[in-house]
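ugh ok fine here u go
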Amino acid sequence: MSSSVGVGSAGGGGTDIASLLEKAKELDQLKKDQDDIVVEINKIHKKVLASPEMVDKSVDAILLKLRGLYARAKELSENEISASNALIGLLDGLLQSGASTAQKKKIVAFYISEVGEQKKKRIKSDTDSARFSAASMRNQLDQAASLKGEQVAARVKSDDEKDEWFVVKVIHFDKETKEYEVLDEEPGDDEESTQKKYKLPMSYIIPFPKKGDPSSAPDFGQGRQVLAVYPGTTALYRATVASHRKRKSDDYILEFDDDEEDGSLPQRAVPFYRVVALPEGHRQ
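structure:
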């Protein structure tokens, strides 16, 4: 960045074009940071609206996160005022400098050119990010569509107290509505004997690891809480990994919550392809 274009004042001071450009750049970055904060706040709002039960589980954490974001937004707003005042002062110095009209035109042209270049770079960066986000979403939708015919873990029921997860089969995925149509192939004894279909959002579905590809499956260490299929059923419950596995193809040894026998939790073997990460805010 050149700083050779400047205007001297009668008092020996001056309005340095580099200072103008630096403050303009700072102001532009502050606006971008504020936009990022708004995006994060909106993400939390959408998450809570999509899964209201999260509030019951982690209300303090949500409030603290929101408070931190709003505090940061306030700080950025105050910094924006400071940067704007500094720019006003620099421009006042230029107006009062006694420079000729030709000098002022030269400075303004250089300033606009440099600021314009900064904005072009920012727009390109934002456009690239948007393209990446769009590509990422398309990839997610393609992956969701590829699950047709596969068994997955699905949150098929939810009330004020608990979530119910079952093994279901994906019949169809609608890319427009971003909804799965799934089939519960083995309804319980207390339900209708016929197989039941559900339409569920993407957030209610967790793909299982591939049975024939243990290397691509996540490796949950000892003490980690997971969601796993209880042996002999198609229901998934929260469990804790009880011991370390030697190979990724080995079964997990799990202790399921609320599975007490004679005052202790029995350890049960579950295939690695029937164990997934515990969803955030899971209630049982």
